[in-house]
Amino acid sequence: MAEQGNPIFANCIFAFWESRDLPEAAIDQLQKTLENHAGEISPNDDDGKINLEDVTHIISTTSDFPQYSEARRNMISIVKPAWITQSLLKNKQAQPRPYTPDPNLIFSDITISCADIPTGDKDAIIGAVLAMGGAESNSLTKLTTHICALTVDHPKCQQALEKSLKCKIVLPHWYVQVYVSPYKLTMNRFDDCLKLGKRIDERPYCLPDPEIFKMKPEDTLAIPDSDRLLGASSPRPETLPISTDDLRHLDVFRNKKVMISKDLEINGRLLKVLEDLIVNGDGSITNSVHNADMFVCQWREGRDYTFASRAGIDVGNLSWLYHLITYNEWTSPLRRLLHYPLPREGIPGFEKFRITLSNYGGEARTYLENLVHVSGAEFTKSMKQDNTHLITARKSSEKCQAAEEWNIDMVNHLWIEESYAKCEVQKLSNPRYNHFPPRTNLGEIIGQTQFDPAVLESRYFPRDPTPSPLDPKPLRRPVMHEKDDEDEKEEQRPAKAKKNIATRPRSKSTTALVSTPAPNRRTSAGKENDTPSSTRSAKDKARANIHGLSADIALYEKEKKRKGPIWGGERALNNIDKQKSLKRRSSSPANLASEAEEFSEEDTRTPKRQRTSKPTTTLPPIGIRLLVTSYQGWIGNVNKEDADKKKLRDLGVHVVQDPSNCTHLAAPAIVRTKKFLAALATGPTIVRSEFIDACIKDGAVPDATGFVLKDTSNEKKFGLKLKDAVARAKANKRSLLRHVPIYCTEDIPNKPETYKDIVLANGGIFNLFRGKPFAKKVNPEEDEGGNEPVYLLSGTSKKEKAMWPMFREEARKGNMVPRIVPAEFILDTAMTQQLKWTDDYLLDDE
C-alpha cells in the first residue's frame, strides 16, 4: 500500500451511500483512509441526499439509490469500495470503470488474463470483457480474478496453482455463454455463440476438471436459491412481513410524504399500521399526490398515477412498500418487476397464452407464476397439448420432452421478464430466450430484469406536447438508470470554488448553449419520426441548419475533453442533440410558434437558462392558453391563422390544441363541438370570438371579463346556464364521469372518436362495443358492483340494434344495469356538467 499521507486522492471529494453491504462502520473506516491520503469527504444532508454539486466520487456497492442517474449525467464517478483498495495498491487512482456498481456491466469486477487461447478468440473474449466493464492484464498479477485457458498446462495456470492464487481458471465457454462473440471458439461445442446478457456461475467451466465435460446436461442439478426475489415474488403480499406489534423506527421514510392510493383496497386496520410505521419513521401521510414524495397504488392508471409518474415521484405497489418496511432501505420500484403497479389489462397478446413452468423452485417459481398472471396469460401447473409455452430453467425434464413432442414453445424466463418489462410480447426467435447453458440452472439469474422508464412513459403516461401551468414541474428526482431521454431536464452545476479544486471560468459560448428539453417523441429502431424532404429547398435548409450548429459542434469537441465535475462532453452532447431536435421540427409558422412555446415555459421554471446561442427576441411569459373553436376568421385561411397565432403569442396568448390544457375557450356561441365540450370539463373562462379580433387589432390583451360569452338563446335551447356549468366543471375537476364505464358502437353517427375525447375529458372509461363479450369486469373500481349502470352510446341502425341483446346480457353478468342511449346523452351530460339520468334517454323499451 501507499505510505500514509501520500496524496493519492488530492482534489477528490467523496460521498458515500450507506446500504446493507456498506454499513456505517465500514464507511467510517473508509473515510479515515481517504482523509489520510488527501481526500475530502462531503457529508450527506439530513434527508440522506448527496450534494452532487460538490462531489467528484460516490462510493457505493449498488446503483440502486435515488440520485444514481443524476450523478451519472453530472460525470461523477460511482465506484465500489474496492476502487479505494486498488488505488492504494497502485499508489495512484485506479480506473473507475472496472469498479462500477452498474448491474448492466456484468464483468465490472473481473480482470482476466488469457493463456493458450488462439489470437482471434482471445481478441473476442477480451473485447467482450472490456465492453461489459471488466479489465484485462497480459501478465498474471494480484488483481487478476480469472485466467481464460483451454488447459492448465500453460505457465500462467501453473503459476496460479503453485502459488494458490485466488483467481479462477475458466474455459472460454463461460464467456461465450454470457456474451456474444463474433468467433467460434476452438473448444466450443455449441453451434452458435449466444448471449444471455447475464453473468452465470463459472464453476461448471473451471479447470482442471470442468463439470460441463464430465457430466451430461440432463444429470441432476440442484435448483439455486432465489434470495434476490425475497419480498418481490408477489405484487400483492397477503400479510405484512413483520409483526404488527413491533412498530419499529424506520429511517427509509424520514422527511418523506407518502400517499397510499384507495385502489389498493386494504382494510382499515392494516392501513392504520402502515401509516403508523411511516409516521413513527419521521415520515408523513398525505392525501394529495401533488404533495407526495412516494405514491403507492395497484394499477397503472388514473390521474394520480399519471401525475406522480410525470413528476418523478417514486411510484410503487404494496409489495414495494412492504419491502421498504422490511429492509428499512430505499430501493427503486423499477428495479424489481413486481414492485411496480400492474397493467390492469395485462400485456397485449398474453391473453392468448397458456403457460406452465419447469425446473424452477421456491421464490423463483412463485415469482414466475405471478408474472404469468399479471401479464394476462393463463398459468397451468400441469402441461397439456393446449399449452402454448413452457418456461424452463434448463432443457431437461419430462415437460421439456413433452414440449418437443407436442411442438410447444420452450423458452427460459428471460422471455417473460423482458416481455413484461418492455410491455409487449418479445419474439421467440431471439436466441437468448431459447438458450440453456449446460450444467446451469438459469434460476440463478432470475429477477435481474428491470424496467426501462422510457418504455413505461411512452405506454402509460406520455407527456402532453403542450405544457400547462398545472403540469408537474421537471423531474424532482432521477429515475434509477440513466437513459437517453430528452424529457429529463438537466440543470447546470454552478461553478463553486472548493477546497483543493480549481474553478475554470466558462466561456460565453458555454453559457449560451440551449439546455431546454425536447418534447417526448417515440422512436423506432433508432430512427426519428421526421420525414425528410427530397426537394432542393429542403436540402438547402438542412445545410443551413448544419451550418448553424457548427459553433456548437466545435464547442462540444472542446468540452468533451475537459476533466472534472463542473462540465463534460456528455452534457455538452445532450445540449447539442436538443438543439438539433428543436431545429428539425415542423416548418409551419403556426407550429413553430407552438413548439417554441413549450420551451419558453420551461425557461420560466428554470432560472439562468439561455434559449439560444444567438441574440433573439424574448417572448413574454404565457398569460393565457387559448383554445379556439368555430372561429370564422380562420376557417379556410391558413395564412391568416398562422400570422394571427404568432401575433397572439407575442402578446402572451398561446393558442393550444389540447382541451385539457386551456385556460380560456373562444367560441362564437354555445356550440356542441368536440373541442367545446371537452374543454368545458376544465372549467375555462369562455370568451366570444371577438376577443381574438381585439387582441390582433389593439396589439394588447384586453380584460377577458369584458368578452365573457353570453348566449341566452342557446342556454334556453340546451336547458342550462353557462355560468353554472363552468362553475360545476371547476368543482368536478375533470372527474364528472370518474369510474363510469361508457361503451360505444363503431357505426354511431359522427364516429366514436368524437365521443371518446369527451368521455375521457370528463374522467370516464371509454370502450368500443362490437357485439362480443366484455374483455373485463365492467366496473372494476367498485367493491360491490350491484345496480351500477353501464352505458352504450348507439345509433338506431339495424346493425347496431342487433348488438343490444348481447350488451344487456354482458352487463347483467357483471351485475350492472345496462343503459342503451343515443349520443345526445353524453352531449347533454358534458354540456351541463351534471350526470342526471332520465328514462327518456333509453333507446330500447327495457
From TrEMBL:
Domain of life: Eukaryota
One GO CC term, this protein: Cul8-RING ubiquitin ligase complex
Feature: compositional bias, Polar residues: 508-523
SMART domains: BRCT (SM00292)
Gene3D superfamilies listed in its UniProt record: BRCT domain
GO aspect biological process, one term: double-strand break repair
Domain BRCT: start-end pairs: 4-101, 350-422
InterPro entries: BRCT_dom (IPR001357), BRCT_dom_sf (IPR036420), CellCycle_DNARepair_Reg (IPR053036)
Compositional bias annotation for Basic residues: 495-507
Region annotation (Disordered) ranges: 459-545, 578-619
PANTHER family assigned to the protein according to its UniProt record, in alphabetical order: REGULATOR OF TY1 TRANSPOSITION PROTEIN 107 (PTHR47667:SF1)
Name under which the protein is recorded: BRCT-containing protein
Organism of derivation: Lachnellula arida
Lineage: Eukaryota, Fungi, Dikarya, Ascomycota, Pezizomycotina
